[in-house]
Each structure stands twice: as structure tokens, then as C-alpha cells.
Amino acid sequence: MIWVAIVAAGIGCYLLKLAGLSVPPRVLERPLVERVADLIPVALLAALIAVQVCARGHELVVDARALGLGVAVVLLLLRAPFLVVVFGAALVAALVRLA
Amino acid sequence: MTDAPLDPRERSAIIRDSLGVGVATGAYGVGFGAVSVAAGLSVAQTCALSLLVFTGASQFALVGVVAAGGAPISGALTALLLGTRNTLYGLRMAPLLRFTGWRRATAAHVLIDESTAMGVTRETTEAARVGFLTTGVSIFVLWNLATFLGAVAGNAIGDPRRYGLDAAVGAAFLALLWPRLHGRRNQLVAVAAAAVALATVPVVPAGVPVLAAAAVALLAGLLTRGEPA
Prior knowledge:
The structure holds two protein chains of two kinds. Chain A is mostly helical.
């Protein structure tokens, strides 16, 4: 199933890119379409964060991952590079679990 | 848009800047590789994602949904929804790049946030092509190499939770979301989407909460008609 999802996502994402370069701009360049397209990444990423950090199966829990996310917020406010943010959050979560 | 030839010094400046962005972005691939094997994908599946999907947020989304126990197809759908922004980048880039035929088909694969950013500000077609292609191709090569390294390293260290790699996924999404949190509307949409996702976690299959949150974007787009972004 994972392979099917990988190939489907690969083909779909490629076609979305190609469509942008090929479709006459007027077909898609409407204010509503542009607004929704701008907001979709915001909504999806926010939802992915919430699920990734708080869900364990069908339960909501607060554990070391929440602390990791807090560390990520601080690092982003300090304008740390992407990899520092990602691995900084991992390091703190790992340390908390050791304690 | 003009066909004016590109001054050699301007060309090297564009190439230098684009390679800088390419190296910095390509290195994220290590994070993706490690996170993907932590989610339970094999090294081969992880590398296939970087080769075939090649748009970071979509790749992280697919493995994030799988890591949360969601159906892989929910992950693929989430990846596609996130991939729609590349279509808009394409609309903006098409009149600048003016590629046709196999060049357009090839260029489409490296149409992502960073290549668009490094191409969209140029004044001539040649300058736009140099910025877009240098950035896109250097990221493609480095992102795939880094993915492989991250996946192999992630596989070698054993239980990913011991190293906090499950916490790294949330941090990666936050880092991708961060630059989009400008403006009141975007912030409200982010909070509402997170709330919808959390509220639906106990009652629907894994993977569906994230898709449900996409409805918030649709609703907000419909309701904020006419307001400045």
C-alpha cells in the first residue's frame, strides 16, 4: 500500500507542477482559487503539527513531543536554521525521555 | 520580458546565490530521510519519495500521516493537496521561463518553493531560467543524496523514539509553516485547522483529521472574499 501511495503522490505532484507551467493563467488565476490555494498549506501544516505532536492512536496526549515543539518555537523565534530546529526538538525530547 | 543576453557577471551572481539556496535546502533532506524511516518506511521507499514526489512539505506530510497510523492513501491525498501550491508557482513562472516541449516537462519536476523564489524576481527570460534551473537542479541532486544518507543513518540507530525523532516531525512541519504565519487570517486558519484536527482524532480513522482540516482553508477562502491577504 505504501508503494501505491508513493507512486500516486509522485505522479500527482508532478502533474500539478506540469499543469501550472502548461495551463493558460486565466483558468486558475481567480481571487478565490488563489486565496484557497494560499490557505491550504497553512491549514494542512497546522493540522499535521497538532496530530503529530498530540495524538497517540485515537487518544490525545501531552508528552515529550510537546516539549520538543516548544523548543522548536523558541529556535524559530531565534531564527535558527531548519536542521537546528528539527534536530534541536528531537534532542530535547530524547533527553526528557532519558530523565 | 525581454530576450536581452545575460551579462556574465550577473549570470555568475545568480548562479552563486542559487547554489547557496540549493546547498542549504538540499541539506534538509537528511531530516526527511531520518524522519521517514522513523515513520516506518524503508530506505528504498524513502528515496523513492524524494526522487518521485520531490516537494518537501508533501513528502513530510505523507510520512507524517503514515507515522500517525493513517492509511497511506490518506497520506498521498494530503501530499497532493499540499502540492497544489506548485501549480500556482507554475502559473507565475510559465511566462518568465517560456519553456516548451521536453524542456517544460523536465523543468516541471524541479518546480518548487525555492526554485520559484530564485527565478521569479528576474527581469529577463534567460536570468529567470538560470536562477530557476540552478536552484532546482542543485536541490534535486543534494536533496536526494541527503535523503539517502538520512535514511541509512536513521535505520542504523534503531528505535527512533529513543532519539526523539518522533518529535522532530512536528518541528519540521512547524518550520515549514512558520514563514506562512504572516497576517491575522493565516494565523486564525492555522489555529482553527489544528483545533479541527484534534477534535476529530478520537472519532475518525487516522489520516482523516488532517484532510478534514483542509476544509478550514476552503471555508476561510470563501468567507474572506475581498479582504486583503
